[in-house]
Every structure is written in C-alpha cells, then in structure tokens.
C-alpha cells in the first residue's frame, strides 16, 4: 500500500460525538412537532444505522424512511440538515476539536513510513475540522461533502468518494488502504475494491462483527493498536 485514505469524524477526530448530538436535537425537534403523541426519540443506534458516514441529506432521508416517513419534501430535508449543521458548528466553536491521540500517533508513523495521506469525509465541514484539530499538515488531498455535491457523486455507502480520493492521489484502489469507523464507509470501501480496509469500532466491540461482514480487513478499537511498539 502506498496511500492511506482516512475518514475524518470518528477516525481522526472525536467530532462524531458532536455530530450525533446535533442530529439528535434536529431529529427530535422534527419528530416531536410532526407527531407529539407518538414521539419516539432519535437514538444512538439510529445514528449508527442510518446517519453515520452518509452525506447530510442522505442521512436525513434514510433515517426518516426508517420511521416510515416518506412524504417529506426536499425543502424539509434541507431544513433538518441545515439546522443540524448550524448546531454542529456552534458546538465546534464552543467545544473545539480533539484529535484521537492514537490516530495522531498513527499518522506520524504512516508519514514516517512514506505513506501518502488523504482524507475522505462526507462532512461539508472537513476543512474546518482538520484546521481546528491541527491535522491539515498530514493531509495531501481532502475529499469532502462539498466535492460530493459539486461532482454529483453518490455518497457512502457508494464507493464514489473513496474512488475519487484514490484517483486524485494517482493510485488504483488496490494500492490504497481505507480507514473507517462507519458501517456505510466500510461498505463503500469494499464496493470500491480497495486493497485493505481498517475499521475502527469505538463502541466497545458492538460493531465489530458487522464491520467484518461489511468487508473490513481488520477491526481495531483505536489506531494506536497498529503503531509498532
């Protein structure tokens, strides 16, 4: 492998927690307004199953469909997604971004070993998060949600964004490794026939078997496990 393609939220930074919290507030507000008596909150499992790793509007549609809500127009989808993003950016500004120490150690080791590094994320806030976490110095190429929209790509679990990352880095997928924490991302990497897929299960092993079934080559709890002692 000559190139490493990293997802961002949940792989390099702890911002997945901020995303999950913002999604919960946005979806709960919508669900409560739509059906006050039948309100059932957005859960952590909902986030993992229907939203994690997907482009913003895809996540909205996928989650709402899981609740049998299919009559939502595009304006409402955009309103939910935009509201979520505003809450995320507010939390990002007030709480900051913390990179996972093990991920930073892995980036250092990968760079020292001569691996070229790219970030492939569904988030439209990729640049802001990388800068806030002081990780831009490691990254040669960034593909984010803005690129997905601008190029008309299919979001994860389709492989399009990872394939774009490999192409921009000048390598075939077989010569690139993907690092993901979302089932949708692991599925995308497998569909793209990438040479090696590292899955990070930050949920106490609850996703390990599903990640393996989705195509992960190896599953770890933290990238620090892959750094030579």
> What's the overall geometry?
globular
Q: Could you state the order of secondary-structure elements as H and E?
A: EHHHHHEHEHHEHEHE
Would you tell me which CATH topology of the largest domain applies? Answer: Rossmann fold
On the 0 to 100 scale, the average pLDDT is 92
The domain tally reads: 2
CATH architecture of the largest domain: 3-Layer(aba) Sandwich
Q: How many E strands?
A: 6
Name of the top-level CATH class of the largest domain: Alpha Beta
Helix content: 40-55%
User: Which regions are unreliable across 5 or more consecutive residues at pLDDT < 50?
Assistant: none
Largest sheet: 6 strands, parallel
By secondary-structure content and strand pairing, the structural class works out as: alpha/beta
Biggest sheet strand line-up: 3-2-1-4-5-6
Distance separating the two termini: 21 Å
| Strand content bin | 5-15%
Please give the radius of gyration in angstroms.
Answer: 17 Å
How many H/I helical runs? 10
CATH superfamily of the largest domain: HAD superfamily/HAD-like
GO molecular function: beta-phosphoglucomutase activity; hydrolase activity; metal ion binding
Enzyme class: isomerase
Cofactor: Mg(2+)
Keywords: Carbohydrate metabolism, Hydrolase, Isomerase, Magnesium, Metal-binding, Phosphoprotein
TL;DR?
Keywords: Carbohydrate metabolism, Hydrolase, Isomerase, Magnesium, Metal-binding, Phosphoprotein. This protein is of the alpha/beta class and 229 residues long. It has 10 helices and 6 strands, in the order βαααααβαβααβαβαβ.
């Amino acid at each position: 492998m000559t190139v490493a393609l990293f997802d961002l939220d949940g792989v390099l930074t702890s911002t997945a927690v901020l995303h999950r919290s913002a999604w919960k507030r946005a979806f709960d507000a919508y669900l409560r307004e739509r059906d006050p008596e039948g309100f059932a909150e957005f859960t952590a499992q909902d986030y993992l199953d229907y939203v994690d790793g997907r482009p913003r509007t895809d996540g909205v549609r996928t989650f709402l469909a899981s609740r049998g809500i299919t009559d939502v127009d595009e304006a409402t989808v955009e309103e939910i997604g935009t509201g979520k993003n505003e809450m995320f950016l507010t939390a990002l500004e007030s709480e900051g971004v913390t990179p996972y120490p093990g991920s930073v150690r892995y980036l250092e080791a990968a760079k020292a070993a001569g691996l070229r590094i790219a970030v492939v994320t569904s988030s439209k806030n990729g640049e802001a998060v990388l800068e806030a976490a002081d990780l831009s110095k490691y990254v040669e190429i960034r593909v984010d949600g803005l690129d997905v929209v601008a190029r008309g790509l299919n979001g994860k679990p389709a492989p399009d964004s990872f394939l774009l990352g490999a192409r921009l880095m000048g390598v075939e997928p077989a010569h690139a490794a993907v690092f993901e924490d979302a089932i949708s991302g692991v599925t995308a990497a497998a569909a793209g026939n990438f040479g090696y897929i590292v899955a990070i299960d930050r949920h106490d092993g609850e996703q390990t078997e599903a990640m393996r079934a989705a195509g992960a080559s190896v599953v770890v709890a933290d990238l620090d496990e892959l750094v030579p002692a």
